[in-house]
Amino acid sequence: MTRPHRVHVIGTGLMGTSVALALRRRGVEVFLEDANPHHLRLAVGLGAGTPVDEGVRQPDQAPDLVIVGVPPAALGAVIAEALERYPGAVVTDLGSVKAAVLADVSARAPQWLDRYVGGHPMAGSEQSGPLAARADLFDGRAWAVTPHPRSRPEAVEIVEELARLCGALVVRMSSTEHDEAVALVSHVPQVASSVVAGLLTTASEGQLALAGQGLRDVTRIAAGDPSLWSQILSANAGPVARLLHEAAESLHRVAVALEKGETSEYAGREVRRFLERGVTGVRRLPGKHGKRPETFVSVTVLLPDRPGELARLFSDVSSAGINIEDVRIDHSPGAPAGLVQLAVHPDAVSPLLEALARHGWDVHR
Amino acid sequence: MTRPHRVHVIGTGLMGTSVALALRRRGVEVFLEDANPHHLRLAVGLGAGTPVDEGVRQPDQAPDLVIVGVPPAALGAVIAEALERYPGAVVTDLGSVKAAVLADVSARAPQWLDRYVGGHPMAGSEQSGPLAARADLFDGRAWAVTPHPRSRPEAVEIVEELARLCGALVVRMSSTEHDEAVALVSHVPQVASSVVAGLLTTASEGQLALAGQGLRDVTRIAAGDPSLWSQILSANAGPVARLLHEAAESLHRVAVALEKGETSEYAGREVRRFLERGVTGVRRLPGKHGKRPETFVSVTVLLPDRPGELARLFSDVSSAGINIEDVRIDHSPGAPAGLVQLAVHPDAVSPLLEALARHGWDVHR
Q1: Contact: B184, A207; criterion CB under 8 Å
Q2: Where is the ACT domain (chains A, B) (predicted)?
Q3: What residue numbers bound the domain in which A330 lies?
Q4: pLDDT of residue A291
Q5: B239 & B342 share domain
């Protein structure tokens, strides 16, 4: 296990600052650098590290690990420069796409390529900038580490140790495998969300009045930064374009089947098969805790709209020794009360219902 | 205001039983009927009403309103039969599509069409059946009421009063306007979610390991019942197919722009314009409470994984007089602690942060 001792983070946006905060939490010495002095000042103020220019640059202060957290389009150049500047350091990055960056670094700095190992923590936010950073952003998240045939084994080790220090779970794969995977689980969903959201631009107010939670969920990520996302999609153009053509063909086929539906029983069955395939796909997704989502059961409690009721509810539940896995509050506008959904393990449902009944709570299943 | 006094609900699934429960809450007399005796027994057991066969059918026990909550494919026939059986009653339905049903009823029962007014409460669940029913399912939700040129004004009035008795907000529109609207805000998002979920059927475990919250949100509704959804989509084939072709064209255009991206600056700008359109669309969505989502601020608290911590947190918050608008718990797999996100009004952020600090909670912004 090669633990990094002195780390240099280039780029103090959401990702870079979060990594710096996570490392500081583990006692690692962190230096920060950013072309944007405002971002750098904020990150330093948050306790993410020391500006690299303030330290006297002695040879014994050279970093053993450099983490590049700059926008996708700038990655290759900044990584190559870091490899040259710090001949004793391993260099990694936090970019969402890996094959194009590896090709770029190979072209710019072939002689130092053995010290570069790509990385991609699977965490983020619709927000950006150092103020959105969190030391726990990576806790329990996957962190893809993408070695290449020329990476030194000890360089791979230090990058994997970085991921673990930040609380993440290492998923090792090649840069090509990574890009195919994120096209499927991240980039194409992003574009699909934007397509649905884009259709709303011409909707009337009356049409929007009928919008429900399903539409909100489907379009939430469409609020992401267009500048960042256009760079990400462009950097992974091949795999994303292939899947987008496939998704577009599916939509056309469903549309044609619907148009033919009245005269063809086969077409009706085709729509249903398409929907069943979606159910199969969504059931494959690991839930929170890495378990299947259906392992929790949701119990809904009516919450009178008085101060202190939520505290009383949790006190009643916890005094019965029941572990709540998830909570959601659904206030209905205009209604005198709210609904609280408590998710628990199936074994805990009966004790929970008993405890709620004992304390007079109004339960809906 | 024409208030219904004696209501007959045909179909005791999720929607029919929820309407019955909501009406009982307001003291309306409800009779229930279902071809599925198991569903009927459950609905009666939940207190949703009296089985219609148990009452002696005296003329003075005839309903003034019949609510049809059967699957889309059966709607027209059941509505026409109800219009014939109860000559003094207004008949409405709870179906997700309105123009095809109106055409079907017009063909089957043209002489009684003046007593039919379509309705569609914009609430539901991925679950189905009477056990998923809730008296408050419609509280604060939109309820589309779709009169036609031959509807009697008093028939429209009683259906709108039904929606209000159930706690919903009436949105009046024609059946054609309704179907165009739900194609946009419900049916096409459903298909888009299924397309993305369907791509996951062939994903490897390693690829799925990189899945995050964004993918989960986009694909949540894809878990809906394929049998119900294929009926809904088929009943609204025209408007849905048109928008699906449009969405498919968008996906193709983005794919082609990505493929051309390396050699054409224009293509890169096209991807960005597409993403910006998505941001514009998602910002048009009204939030919960009919307010924009950004009116609440989220504060994240680190929760030690010990029993009673959640109760202690809510007690500390409520003793400071702070109103929590929404709560989310995010357990990180493998991490010793969980994160609780508390959403509050912007004015409450400072007092909340002070109260949390005073009680020693570890807060992340």
Answers
A1: yes
A2: 298-365
A3: 293-364
A4: 36
A5: no
